[in-house]
Every structure is written in structure tokens, then in C-alpha cells.
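Entry 14. Two folds queued back to back today. First construct below, sequence then C-alpha cells.
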Amino acid sequence: MSTALATSGIAGRVAVYSGTFDPITLGHEDVARRAAMLFDDVIIAVAIAHHKKTRFTLQERLDMAAEVAARMPGRVRVLPFEGLIMDFCRQHGATAVVRGIRNLTDFDYEAQMAAMNRKLNPAVETVFLLPQAELQCISSTLVREISQLGGDVSQMVSGAVAARLSPKPLQA
């Protein structure tokens, strides 16, 4: 049973899957679904992202992630976050951070982040998950660009997300 936009954790193995999710892609969905099979509770933590210009508002990104979470197996919740992910993990009793790895470039960056996060909170492990091979080329950045130029993104995002991707300007 999935719940969206819940406010408190449950006992068990809690994992946090964080990102801007601008928009959430089929690759993100695949990683979240795999995490839901490994952990008792998965929190999709949508970054407020004051430092980035996003195509979608925070509420739109939360709504899209909640639509995705509602179709997931297990307990998958969606919450906003800002600040350090390790502080968010501590607040929600998480024992793991889940990160999707598409390629070696992702791995190099994520390995450095995992090492730094371990310094900040040694009780939280980082778990790397690879999306299915056919989804590894998808990134939110490419989805936004392809959509903005009128391309077909139906094989990169869910139908609900694709419907929201009509050309629109970046958020300030």
C-alpha cells in the first residue's frame, strides 16, 4: 500500500531517495520501485532546490512524484526537503540513502557524495541502484530539453508526467 505526501515515518528499514525530480523520469521510477522491494519504507525526498531554476514548481514536482509513488509496491512516501540530506535522514529515522547510477560519471560524483555523507552521519549507508539498461540514458535535463523542443518524451516519463511537459518557461 503506497501513501503519498505523508508526514511521519514507520519502524523498520527506512531509505531516502532524494533529488530535484524535475521531472521524475522512468529511470527514477525504476530506482524507487527497486528500493521499495529492499526497504520497509522509502521516502522520495523532493528537493526544494532554491539554488536551481526548475521547470516545475516544488508543488508540481511533489504531485508528479506522488502520482508515481501511488503505483509502487510497498510503502513509498513523498516529502519535500531542503538542507542536508543527512539531517533529513536523521529526522525520519532513515538508515540508507538510495542513489541511482546510470554511468561512470554518475558513479564518480555519487561515490564522493557518499563518502562525505558518511562523515556527516556514519549510521546511514548509501545504496547504489542501476536502472534497467534501456532507462540508463534518461536524465531529467534531457527530458526537459527534448520536450521544450517539441520532441516525444513518452518513452522517458510516465503518461501523467508527459502530459505536464507542454512547453513552458523555467521557474525563477
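Second construct, same run, same settings:
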Amino acid sequence: MKQSKYRGQKIAFLTQHGKQEVVAAVLEPVLGCEVVHVSGYDTDLLGSFTRDVPRSGTQLDAARRKARKGMELAGLKIGLASEGSFSTDPYTGMMPWNREIMVLIDDVAGLEIVGMAQGSTIAGQILSSDLAEIEQFVDKLGFPQQQVVMRPQSENDPRYVKGIHTW
């Protein structure tokens, strides 16, 4: 088996949603690298799925900015980032759809590698003041493993709480 050019290399990964464990478990054994979790920067400043901070440019542009920010904060020449988006499926427009882009930027080799996965996802919304009805709804979504966002009036209300993962 050919030795990886990333053996022994540190790769910066800026994320605040716990993705570093999943990514490291896949990349480290295969590439022989060390995925360095970079924290301390609110990645939602680059755009958020709750739309409170609009994304500038494309989903790939946001992933590139996130990788570069992680590289800068870690002082590394190799960075990795992911950027997700949620919408309806591109085929029927009826199912909730997730598209995740990952980008690896290697300034040493002058490389950019982009990967994408997409598929149906768990999503939904409810407008209710009945706690039992809300509990039943979030249970169907897979709460607490599936975190939720709560808005007081509607999906367009600018007030929200996101990342809810406990009762």
C-alpha cells in the first residue's frame, strides 16, 4: 500500500457541531494524519442555516472560508471544513433534503479537494403552544440526538434558540 502524503501531518478542522470526531475517525486511519479540532470561532458568522446570518456566496465559498479560518487560527497549512444546507429535495420538492460539502485545502501542495454527500433528512416544523404536542413532534424527529431550533411565532421570526439538545 502506498504511503499517504498526509502521514504525520496536522489538518485544521474548524467546527462547532461535533463533526471532528466523525471526520477524524475516517481520515486519520486512512491518511495517517491528525485532525486538529479548531474551536473558539463562531462559524455561524460565515452564514447560518437559521438564516439569521445570511451566507455570502455559495455553499462551497462558505466551506472554503471556514477551512481558511481554521488554518489561520491553528497556524497550519492544511485545513478541512464542512458546510451543510437544508432545503427540499431537487427531484420532487417535497422531501426535506440535506446537502453537505467538505473541502480540504492544502497550501503546501496547492490542492483543493471537494466532496459532497446529499440525501433526504429529518426535518419538520410545528406551531403549537401545547407542550405534549411539541414533545410528541420532537420525539418523531429523533430528539435529543437530532437537535432542534425554536422560534416563538413562525419560521421567519428573527428570535430563536438553536442547538436545543436537552429537555
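Quick look at the second one. Residues 59-74 form the longest helix (16 residues). Residues 28 and 34 are 6 Å apart (CA to CA).
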